[in-house]
Write a structure and sequence with these properties.
The complex is a heterodimer of chains A (about 450) and B (about 240). With about 450 residues, chain A is α+β, with helices and mostly antiparallel strands. Chain A has 2 domains: about 1-45 and about 305-439, no CATH class; about 55-300, no CATH class. Chain A is built from 16 helices and 11 strands. Chain A has helices at about 1-15, 15-45, 85-95, 130-135, 145-150, 160-170, 220-225, 240-245, 260-280, 295-300, 310-340, 340-350, 355-390, 390-395, 400-430, 430-435; strands spanning about 55-60, 85, 100-110, 120-125, 140, 155-160, 175-180, 185-190, 215, 250-260, 290-295. In chain A, a hairpin with a 2-residue loop joins β7 and β8 (about 185-190). The mean pLDDT of chain A is about 90. By secondary structure, chain B is α/β, with parallel strands linked by helices. The two termini of chain B are about 15 Å apart. Classes of the chains: A alpha+beta (about 450), B alpha/beta (about 240). The interface between A and B is medium-sized, with 25 and 30 residues.
Chain lengths: ~450, ~240
């Protein structure tokens, strides 16, 4: 009977084109508005490293004190979201986690070997070798540099696939040299595509932007005084010069640790507290130890990757969907009541209530499907519109994937079925005798 | 075939109770052609909707084809209606966005017949009313008389035990009405049991007998053997 009801639904919708179009547009507009915001919301709040996000922890240590008036990102716990170089190095040397990496962002001038290409600036990330394994970075050619390279401050680099394509036309460049700020670096590896969104490991600048073009050992970057491109926050006037910055309490180093088990995380928490207590005992910290580790999901929430304003926008857009569905429900009710006679005839000819219910519900489903198509188109247009209005990094999120399309269809059909329940219920309770007597 | 005994139908509001039928008894035997007449508001259509299981009654008994219909739930009534009753309405009540074939198909769909059986019955019914050539036409493309013939074909397709006709010629001109009436008489001659509600004495006189209703009660049962053209027996 499904095919029969489906064909009846299509005929019924063709019967009153204006009403049908109004219903479909009402649903499509609501779906378009809500899905436009939901698509961006989903991308913003998605797990950037599924399967491992519970094992990777951002590390925080209060090296400014609870009464500090410096930048603490507006958080209640008043912890900085980065570490000082001093603390980062102490943690790296203690090496208590399965894997850990201090890192910071920089930029350098790259002079291509190809004389046809001009020098250009590249975004640089300076981590330790554990960064690549810890964050499951895939490699196209070669491999990360080694711990020995970290220790030796080696002049080695890992390129992104895009940069390798640009410099070496996609060929295996492992072993070749590139020149950064006048210094030669040997390519040890070329990453395959890897762009976790949001860029959870460093949320200081654009949270949804692309990562670095090139990776250089942290130790080498520090030795070369590679400029800090990310956030640099200082409690008070710090010592001048690079060495002074390294000795200061300024925070500019992101620090991540891999702690695969709850026990490992608990151990690390204790380790951090002990470390802060030692700093207090040594006279560096004048306050009780305050430290924290947060896994990726906790970190994204802590850093307000999805702002409250955007959450409200999603709420408003879904409220709008609700209003659209109420409109659609009213139109469906009008349509149902408009063909009460037909329903009465069908009942007289032997249709029971469940048959009328199925017929009307399938008609709602067909309207929902058509609304989904309109909703998809409007979502696409909405995302294009958002691209022009939002910052560049968020604009990167404005695309529809298969899951979004599925969500649109499921949302449109399910909400339309929901909106169609009352008109359907009314249809099943049409008294055939009254309809036929009323002629 | 259809037996109502002391049947009543009351419509109640908070302040008033109105009887559409009161102490209403009628017995229609298989193969009979009965005309139900009466003035407007006398309860003719209420009788027909109760007889067609479209409405429940308040008191009394109603047996359809030997089965007591009191207490049947909606699904059981729908099934019984679909299997045993064919409706012919004054306003034809064809579904406008279905063509003739699909209109006749409607009760068969609810009966659960397979495609081949439905096609066979539809073709047979349309041939019976002389509209095989119009099966792809939509109701709006047919004359009133043709539409009523389609409605009769729809009523016949399920091979019901009882045909209930509510002013079947009320919306037709004289010539078309004559054609429809002749078709009903033909069906009766072939053995159909027909109950026809009408306010037209000329039509009523063509039935085997006439049941007259006034104020929801049968006031007279008159044998009407005079214009019955078939050899079937009038039952009074």
């Amino acid at each position: 009977m499904f095919a029969y009801y489906f064909s009846l639904a299509v005929r019924s919708l063709k019967r009153n084109v204006v009403l049908t179009v109004l219903m479909i547009v009402a649903i499509g507009v609501g779906i378009g508005a809500s899905m436009t915001t939901l698509t961006v919301f989903r991308a913003m709040g998605s797990d950037p490293i599924p399967g491992k996000s519970a094992e990777l922890f951002a590390v925080q240590i209060d090296n400014w004190g609870p009464d500090s008036s410096g930048s603490t990102n507006g958080k209640q716990d008043r912890l900085q979201n980065q570490l000082s170089y001093r603390d980062a190095m102490n943690l790296m040397q203690a090496h208590p986690a399965k894997a850990q990496s201090a890192m910071y962002a920089s930029s350098l001038a790259l002079t291509p070997a190809n004389p046809d290409l001009q020098a250009f600036r590249v975004h640089v990330r300076a981590p330790y070798t554990d960064f690549f394994a810890m964050f499951e970075v895939p490699f196209l050619y070669g491999a990360p540099w080694s711990s020995a390279d970290d220790a030796a401050h080696a002049e080695v680099v890992v390129l992104t696939r895009a940069l390798n394509d640009k410099l070496f036309s996609g060929a295996n460049s492992v072993g070749k040299s590139i020149t950064l700020d006048g210094h030669d670096y040997r390519v040890v590896g070329v990453m395959n595509d890897w762009e976790p969104i949001p860029k959870f490991y460093d949320l200081n600048d654009e949270k949804f932007s692309k990562g670095a073009d090139i990776y250089v050992p942290f130790t080498r970057a520090v030795e070369r005084h590679m400029a800090i491109e990310g956030n640099l926050n200082c409690k008070d006037n710090s010592e001048s010069g690079w060495e002074g910055r390294l000795r200061s309490e300024c925070v500019w180093v992101q620090f991540w640790a891999e702690l695969p088990t709850a026990a490992a995380a608990a151990d690390y928490r204790r380790f951090l507290q002990n470390y802060a207590a030692q700093q207090q005992a040594s006279g560096r910290f004048h306050w009780p130890p305050r430290t924290s580790i947060k896994n990726v999901r906790e970190w994204l929430a802590y850093e307000d990757v999805v702002s409250d304003e955007f959450r409200i926008l999603v709420l408003v857009s879904f409220s709008f969907l609700f209003v659209c569905l109420l409109n659609a429900m009213g139109l469906m009710l009008a349509k149902t009541m408009g063909r009460a006679r037909d329903i009465g005839v069908r009942r007289a000819l032997g249709a029971d209530r469940s048959a009328i219910f199925a017929q009307c519900l399938i008609e709602s489903g067909v309207i929902g499907l058509a609304g989904a198509v309109v909703g998809l188109l409007l979502t696409g247009l909405g995302l294009l519109g958002l691209r022009t209005m939002l910052s560049r990094d968020i604009a990167n999120l404005t695309h529809l994937d298969v899951i979004d399309v599925v969500i649109v269809i499921v949302l449109a059909v399910s909400t339309t079925l929901l909106a169609g329940l009352y008109p359907t219920w009314r249809a099943t309770h049409i008294q055939p005798a009254w309809q036929l007597k009323a002629q | 075939m259809l037996k109502m005994t002391h049947l009543s139908k009351a419509y109640r509001t908070e302040v008033v109770e109105t009887y559409a039928l009161r102490d209403f008894s009628i017995h229609v035997r298989p193969g009979e052609f009965v005309a139900v007449t009466g003035p407007s508001g006398s309860g003719k259509t209420t009788f027909l909707t109760i007889a067609g299981l479209l409405e429940e009654f308040t008191g009394g008994e109603y047996q359809l084809d030997g089965a007591d219909v009191r207490g049947l739930n909606d699904n059981q009534r729908s099934r019984l209606r679909n299997e045993k009753i064919g409706f012919i309405f004054q306003a034809f009540n064809l579904i406008p966005d279905l063509n003739v074939f699909d209109n006749v198909d409607v009760p068969l769909r609810y009966r659960g017949f397979n495609g081949a059986e439905r096609r066979r019955r539809i073709q047979k019914s349309l041939e019976r009313v002389g509209l095989s050539a119009r099966s792809k036409h939509y109701p709006a493309e047919l004359s009133g008389g043709q539409q009523q013939r389609v409605a009769i074909a729809r009523a016949l397709a399920g091979e019901p035990r009882l045909l209930l006709a509510d002013e079947p010629t009320g919306n037709l001109d004289t010539q078309m009405a004559r054609g429809v009436m002749e078709l009903l008489e033909e069906l009766h001659r072939d053995g159909a049991t027909i109950v026809m509600v009408t306010h037209d004495p000329e039509l009523a006189i063509r039935a085997q007998r006439e049941v007259h209703i006034v104020d929801g009660q049968v006031v007279d049962l008159v044998a009407q053997p005079r214009l019955v053209r078939s050899g079937s027996q009038a039952q009074i």
